[in-house]
Structure formats: structure tokens, C-alpha cells
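Hi again,

Forgot to attach this to my earlier email, sorry! This is the prediction with zinc ion bound. I've pasted everything inline since the attachment limit keeps bouncing my files.
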Amino acid sequence: MNKELQVAALQNGTVIDHIPSDKLFTVVSLLDLHHEETNITIGNNFVSKKLGRKGIIKIADRFFSEEEISRLSVVAPNIKLNIIRNYEVVEKKILELPDELKGIVKCNNPKCITNNEPMQTHFHVIDKQVGVLKCHYCEKEQSMENIKLI
Ligand SMILES: [Zn+2]
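C-alpha cells for the complex follow:
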């Protein structure tokens, strides 16, 4: 499918591209798109050379904050965002896992202070390739594959 055609219909908004197909609905719920009242187009299982199958979400009149973007990078690191203004792509972002994650992921150690006190979790991303996080407080490591989002 032609990429230019896919984004052409949007006057202003965001196109989220290169979403692995099995992560599409996680992304939808993560961004809380169920409650958006703007025009949203969701497509899945487009053939992609890189990913095999991918999903695309087009959202009119919606731009995402850095926080929302870092949440996205946790579930699907190589997503691409195209920011559209007046039918033109004015910015492209390729999501990358940040060095630190605050208030996004739960610590999987039940004894961790973050699971027992009303406080924000804080993780250091110690291996971006493999996806390993380390809790700032209890120092327990966990794999990105098994994380629970807050
Ligand atoms: Zn912890």
C-alpha cells in the first residue's frame, strides 16, 4: 500500500505507523482511543517488509504528548509517528525506548515500596536491545516482555 495515500486523507492529526499487528489493540487502549470523539481510522494486517504484518492508526486533530509517546514505546518500540498539518507530514518520529520510565510500568516485586506506598514507579532501562528494566527502588530487573502497565 502506498504510504502517501494512507496519510493523504488526514488534514491535521497523527498517523501511527509500523505497529506490529499483535500490538495494535494494545496501542488503541493505551492511548484510550475508545473515548476519542475525533475521526479515527484503524487498519490492521497490512503487509510490511519489515514487520510481516502491521497496523496503522490515523487520528484526526490529535497530537500526543511526550508521556503518551513514551508509554507507546514501551509496548511497541519501533512505531513511527507522522504528524500531519494541513495535509502535509510536518514531523516524523520513530519511537525509541527512553532511558528511564516513570509511572508507566509496574514493578513485579510484590515487596517493592512502589507496590506498597502511593508513589510513582521508576525504572532504568538497562538494555534497550533486549529490553531489560531495573527498578530504581528495589533493583529488581524485569524483561520488557512481561511488563504490566499502570
Ligand atoms: Zn521495585
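Strands lie at 13-20, 40-48, 52-60, 80-85, 88-94, 100-102, 122-127, 132-135, 141-143. The chain has a mean pLDDT of 88.

That should be everything now.

G.
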